[in-house]
Amino acid sequence: MNEFREWLRFAHMGFGFVGLMAFWIPVVTRKGSIGHVRFGTVFLWCVYGIAASAFIATSHEMYLAIRSGGGPATDPSGFGFAIFLFYIALITLASGRHGYRVVETKNDPTEINTTAHRLLAIASMAGSVITIAYALLFWSGLSIIFLALGPIGIGIGSSMLRYMRDPAVSKMAWWYEHMGAMLGAGVAFHTAFVVFGAQRLFDYAGSLGALAWLPWVLPASVGIPASIIWTRYYRRKFGDLPASAPRPQVRHRGTP
Predict the structure, then answer these.
(1) What is the DSSP secondary structure assignment for residue 211, as one 8-state letter?
(2) Domain tally for the chain?
(3) What's phi and psi for 14, nearest 5 deg?
(4) Which of 52, 67, 85, 178 is the most exposed place for a label (fewest CB within 10 A)?
(5) ∠ CA(56), CA(61), CA(63), 5° rounding?
(6) b/e code 38-52 from CB counts within 10 Å (16+ = b)
(7) What is the tally of helices (H) and strands (E) in the chain?
């Protein structure tokens, strides 16, 4: 069993490392180019690998805790951390899958409205509710992190449902959804790197003190605003967002 857990851990780390590298190629290459598509596909499969390995590992940890008589009451931090990692894997999967599906169905956006896709959106929102509720009911040193990142799943799920209800709100709606969803999945990969990988490389965890929560929220605090700004840029470029109106000229006295 220990060998299986080690194998699972290394597989998870491998998917994370490859996905982190693959994420940036579609960002910097021309949209729709061969490199964009190929490395985007690599990133998507890494999302699937990360999610699958995390689901198995966290479910196994929660099962062992319950079987041994543990759980939220006896170990709120440990059990809650397993729930939280399951939730992070879930919203990463939802973002990556949605980002892929909107491109796959761009010629007929109504095809995205499937039972499986709706369930994935609802599961993301339910994961948010469970994470927030756990943080409040079983308060621990990790509750601040749970509360800070808990609402993200509601945002992802509601965005997915909104697109499924009205996918043709604009001709380029699929483009905006694709960018936002893939950037969201990328934020999750960078969060994992900052929290686990970078801390081991640079050994800064002990020096953070009361700011130990910062690595968890830093990628999201940068990535979410960046996604909004980038989407607004393309909305304006494609004519879905009116350009800023010119400022009126102020006439001074004596000016003809």
Answers:
(1) G
(2) 1
(3) -65, -45
(4) 67
(5) 95
(6) ebbebbbebbbbbbb
(7) 10, 0
Q: What is the pLDDT of residues 170-229, one digit of tens each?
A: 888 899 999 999 999 999 999 888 887 656 655 555 566 667 778 888 888 888 888 888
Task: List, for residues 111-142, the tens digit of each pLDDT value.
Answer: 999 999 999 999 999 999 999 999 999 998 88
Residue bearing tokens 């990535």: 223
Q: How many residues in total does the chain contain?
A: 256
Which residue pairs, CB below 8 angstroms and at least 24 apart, start in 215-218?
A: 215/191, 216/145, 216/148, 216/149, 216/191, 217/145, 217/148, 217/149, 218/194
Residue 248 resides in a domain: no
AA identity, residue 58: T
Does a structural domain hold residue 53? Answer: yes
pTM of the model: 0.87
